[in-house]
Amino acid sequence: MRKLRRFLDFIASRLFFVTLLSALFILVFYLAMNTANIWILVDEGLEARTGAVLMGTGTDGLTNYFREEFLAQDPVLAVGLSDASPYRDYKIRSYRHNVQMLSVWSWPWDTTARADIVESVPYINGSINSDSRAAALAEDDSRLTPPAWETRRYRVTLVRSAGRWKISNLQQMER
Description:
Blueprint: H1 2-55, H2 68-73, H3 75-80, E1 90-105, E2 112-128, H4 130-139, E3 152-161, E4 164-174
């Protein structure tokens, strides 16, 4: 009887540790999966937003990345797609967009996530439109190239609905 009890204690303790280790692996897997999904969504979403402002492509594809409530109130899009846009007189051929992820956190069972990022566009290749060229030459030679994009630090809030993450808020932390 004593040997049977020791044997059952041995099996139970090993089974407990295997269960605990399996639960830990599952938790780490879902944390990594959420982090990767959030990273890709933030990177591609902010690049699409930047492209909409620089290239003037519109906001049609942005609903894949952003909630519509956010798009309606985004100040960067509001200025960038209006007549007050600093890029409206330029033909942008290409640009380099960088997103540096500082931190990201989301529990596997949560429907919200938070990430701190730095967005920058270090290179914009473009030229001024021909109809604005004469006025730019009369004013200043620096207007012949597109203005620089401001590097900004954001706190991004994401919401998961129907199994998909979407950006619901970009809170600017600093420039």
